Amino acid sequence: MQQPEVAAEACARIPRMAGADDSAGGAVSVSAEPRISYVIARLERAIRAAINERLRPHGLTTLQYTTLSVLASRGQPLSNAQLARRAYMTPQAMIEVLTALETKGLIRREPHPNHRRVYPASLTEEGHRVLASCDAVVEAMEQEMLAALDPAERAAFREWLTTCVRALHAGLPSDGGASAAISTRAP
């Protein structure tokens, strides 16, 4: 596995095409900097891998951790469909995640009083305990990732990323209270 510095340096050298390829033999403009979307995609993959590595001793995957985080941040039982939307998963994938979490004793699902086919999930005490442990290791990973940034840069980075997410209508409500509770947990 490549060291993060080596991987980052390799990414920085990957050129991006700034112009179209001219099959008639014309020049193609090449930039030495990768596209921002490429860098963000690489960061997302690196974060997911780092989180998976740190969650493995706790017996969880990133998707299972995300599901526990969503349940904790909402503070109430959520249906499969609600969890799938909030965790950016398909309902079919969420069923598998919920089954695994229920088998591990981290969540419980009980029938909804008004909908006989809906079984909202909630965290068990063990689920809260495991989530707290996982939050600590994910927080440590984030601190490691952001170590080169001072507090002002970290705040600016968070603000820029949040602005980009909102610009693409990908979540994070604009009111400070609701987004703060969600953004501190879900990876």
Highlighted features:
mainly alpha, two-stranded antiparallel ribbon, 187 residues, globular
Description:
It is a single chain. This protein is mainly alpha-helical. It has helices at residues 4-13, 36-55, 62-74, 80-86, 91-103, 125-145, 151-167, 176-183; strands at 16-17, 30-31, 107-109, 121-123. The chain starts with a helix and ends with a helix.
How much helix is in the residues?
55-70%
Shape: globular
Strand percentage: 5-15%
Structural category is mainly alpha
Please outline the major beta sheet.
2 strands, antiparallel
Distance between the termini: 22 Å
SS summary, helix count: 8
Q: Care to count the β-strands?
A: 4
Secondary-structure element order, N to C: HEEHHHHEEHHH
Query: How is the largest sheet built, in terms of strand order?
Result: 1-2
Global Rg: 20 Å
Overall mean confidence score, pLDDT: 81
Low-confidence parts, pLDDT < 50 over ≥5 residues? Answer: 1-22, 177-187
